[in-house]
Amino acid sequence: MKPVRILVVDDSVVVRKLLSDTLSKEATFEVVGTAGDGRIALAKISQLHPDLITLDIEMPVMNGLETLAEIRKSDRKIPVIMFSTLTERGSERQTTRRSRATPAARRWRSSRFART
Is residue 83 within 8 Å of 54, Cβ to Cβ? Predict the structure, then answer.
């Protein structure tokens, strides 16, 4: 079975590296590329033809919601997993409306990591 070809899109170098390294450990996944913003991602999608895209919501230049809208104009079937450590209130509703998908949000609270 061929591995799922993934494009990782996030403006944080650390998150791109962490996500790419984690996904690459699984034989069923192949990270074919990364992008630091939506415009770069759109160019790489047409070059790399990924099977799946991980997409940060909050990014400079072109954010995840704008990028998703552009992706959907050309390819309505490619799966996109959207996530962010920091999102503005209402992004989840906008994501759902634009993509007809359920967003997976990473919500971190400093209290979860505080010592007791």
Answer: yes
**What's the order of all strands across the beta sheet hosting 4-9?**
29-35, 4-9, 52-56, 80-83
Distance from C-alpha of 116 to C-alpha of 114, rounded to nearest angstrom:
6
Full-model pTM = 0.75
**Euclidean distance between CA atoms 74 and 72, whole angstroms:** 5
Tell me the C-alpha to C-alpha distance, in Å, between residue 56 and each of 2, 49, 51, 87, 112.
26, 19, 17, 9, 22
Would residue 97 be called left, alpha or beta, if left means φ above 0 and alpha means ψ between -120 and 50 degrees? Answer: alpha
How many Cα atoms within 13 Å fall on the side-chain side of residue 114? 4
Task: Report residue 57 as tokens.
Answer: 């919501």
Give the pairing type, strands 52-56 and 80-83: parallel
Which strand (E) or helix (H) includes residue 44?
A: helix 38-48
Tens-digit pLDDT profile for residues 5-25: 999 999 999 999 999 999 999
Name residue 86's amino acid.
Answer: L
